[in-house]
TrEMBL record:
Domain Metalloenzyme positions: 2-99
Provenance organism: Rosa chinensis
Recorded superkingdom: Eukaryota
Organism placement in taxonomy: Eukaryota, Viridiplantae, Streptophyta, Embryophyta, Tracheophyta
Keyword Isomerase in annotation: yes
GO annotations of cellular component type: cytoplasm
Gene3D superfamilies reported for this sequence: Alkaline Phosphatase, subunit A (3.40.720.10)
Record-annotated membrane-spanning stretches: none
Signal peptide range in chain numbering: none
Main localisation: cytoplasm
A GO MF label: phosphoglycerate mutase activity
Subcellular location(s) per record: Cytoplasm
Official protein name in the record: Putative phosphoglycerate mutase (2,3-diphosphoglycerate-independent)
Length: 157
C-alpha cells in the first residue's frame, strides 16, 4: 500500500475498514513517501507521483503481492486549491508516473473541472466488481452496480 503522507491513511486505515495496522504483515506492506511540507500543492503539483510509482513498481516486480494498492494524491489535493492549470499538471504527472490498468478516485475532485456527460456513471461498486473479476472470480451483477468498469465503458468488451 503506497502513498505519500497527505493520503497515507487512505491506503491504510480507511482501506482496512478504519482499522490501524496490517491484517497480515506477511501479505501487506505499507510504504509512506513523505510529503513536502510548507509548500502549497499548486506550487508543486507533481507532488511525489513518480517516487510513489517507482516504489509500487518495485512491489509489483517483487511478485510478493497479489495486489498493489496505490494512492496518487495529485489530482485531489491540487484540485482542492482550485487552480485548473496546476490540476492539469498534477493529473499528467500521475498519468506519466504509472500507466496502470486500474486507476480510481475517492470523490473525483479533479474531474469536477470538466464534467463529461457522455460516459456512463460508475462508482466504487464498479471498481470492486472489476477487481473481483481481475482476480479470477465472478462478481455479483446488478443494474450498474457490480458491473465491470470495462463493460460500462466498452459494452462489447
Amino acid at each position: 500500500m503506497h502513498s505519500e503522507t497527505v493520503k497515507f491513511s487512505h491506503v491504510t486505515f480507511f482501506w482496512n475498514g478504519n482499522r490501524s495496522g496490517c491484517f497480515n504483515p506477511e501479505m501487506e506492506e505499507y510504504v509512506e513517501i513523505p510529503s513536502d511540507s510548507g509548500i502549497s500543492f499548486n506550487v508543486q503539483p507533481k507532488m511525489k507521483a513518480l517516487e510513489i510509482a517507482e516504489k509500487a513498481r518495485d512491489a509489483i516486480l517483487s511478485k510478493k503481492f497479489e495486489q498493489v494498492h496505490v494512492n496518487l494524491p495529485n489530482g485531489d489535493m491540487v484540485r482542492h486549491i482550485g487552480d485548473i492549470e496546476a490540476t492539469i499538471v498534477a493529473c499528467k504527472a500521475a498519468d506519466q508516473a504509472v500507466k496502470v490498468p486500474i486507476a480510481i478516485g475517492g470523490h473525483g475532485l479533479a474531474p469536477g473541472f470538466r464534467f463529461r456527460k457522455d460516459l456512463p456513471s460508475g462508482g466504487l461498486a464498479n471498481v470492486a466488481a472489476t477487481m473481483i473479476n481481475l482476480h479470477g472470480f465472478e462478481a455479483p451483477s446488478q443494474e450498474n452496480i457490480g458491473k465491470r468498469i470495462l463493460t460500462l465503458l466498452f459494452p462489447k468488451f
